[in-house]
Amino acid sequence: MPSDVLVEEFEVLESIYPSELSIISDREIQIDAEPDDAIDGGIEPFRLKLSVKYPDDYPDSLPDLNLEPIDGTIDDSEHDALLTGLTEVGNENLGMAMTFTLVSHLREQLSILVRERVEKRLAEEREKERLALEAEEARTRGTPVTVESFKAWKMKFDKEMLQKKLKDDDERLRGLTPKEREEIKKVGTRMSGRQLFERNRNLDHDDDSLMEEGTVSVDFSQYERVQADEDEDEDEDEGDRVHFSDSD
What we know:
By secondary structure, this protein is α+β, with helices and mostly antiparallel strands. Helices cover 59% and strands 10% of the residues. Strands 1-2-3-4 form a four-stranded antiparallel beta sheet, covered by helices on one side. It starts with a helix and ends in an 8-residue tail after the last helix. This is RWD-domain-containing protein. It comes from Leucogyrophana mollusca.
């Protein structure tokens, strides 16, 4: 037989929660609870069922409380935190009808929980956007140039250019006749003072390992100039010769 306090409390609860309240027995009810505030943010609907079992000496002792999700999910830590809060509120209201107070507290805590979920999700989205922006900036910015990195790049570039020049010179030499190659070698051994200076300066900066022993770097423009001089001499010799014809 329920106490007069419990009968009266059930009547009050039926008037406040006409669609949320389910009376299971004269000492047990269930009430559907959802957040007090409608919170935007794309969070799925969240609703819990609070089961309340009243002891014989209620309201001088706490009812047995239990929570289970109706809509949405709740993890163990959230479940335990909500029950702990309800127990604290119940202890503060011993000796009085407390079900309405318990439900009101639960609805407030559900609002806080949903708000925290929204804020957490927004923070995660902002962090993803920040990381994506940093990655894009790093991709478009490239590697900062320092004095050391520029020197390393310049040394590598000079080596590549020297190797290319040697390869090109070698290919051009292979395309010449033996006589032409001999003339090239002669021209290559006769350097001006400026050429010697430039050659020594370059050797000071280039890696000696790139130059094979006996390799000659040839300036083909010198060969072309010598050829032009020789052709000019031959034309002059032709002009100095005396030609006789049968009419003479």
